Amino acid sequence: MSSPPPLITCTPGVRSGKPCVAGTRITVSDVLEYLASGMSQDEILSDFPDLSPEHIQAVRDFGIERSKGLSGC
User: Fold this and answer.
1) pLDDT tens digits, one per residue of 42-53
2) CB crowding 30-54: b at 16 or more within 10 Å, else e
3) Gap between the Cα atoms of 17 and 45, Å rounded
4) Contact between residue 19 and residue 28 where contact means Cβ atoms under 8 Å apart
5) How far is residue 17's CA from residue 44's CA, in Å, rounded to a whole number?
6) Contact 9, 17 (CB under 8 A)
7) Could you give all domains of the chain from N- to C-terminal order, each with its CATH number?
8) Of 30, 38, 47, 62, which has fewest CB within 10 angstroms of its CB?
9) The model's pTM
């Protein structure tokens, strides 16, 4: 059984290789900043129709793992 494709990717040449939501140019750091500024998940999803609730959760998980030094690109 194969694992699902990653929701967060780092692609050289796309946003300088920063972690992005897969298939978009939306960086993890941008989404985390929106959340930190008080935007709700629904507001972010409304502003960025390419995102899904699963993407927002993946961004949150990535941020937590990175703060613990467990992930990175």
Assistant:
1) 999 999 999 999
2) bbeebbeeeeebeebbeebeebeee
3) 23
4) yes
5) 22
6) no
7) 19-67 (1.10.10.10)
8) 38
9) 0.86
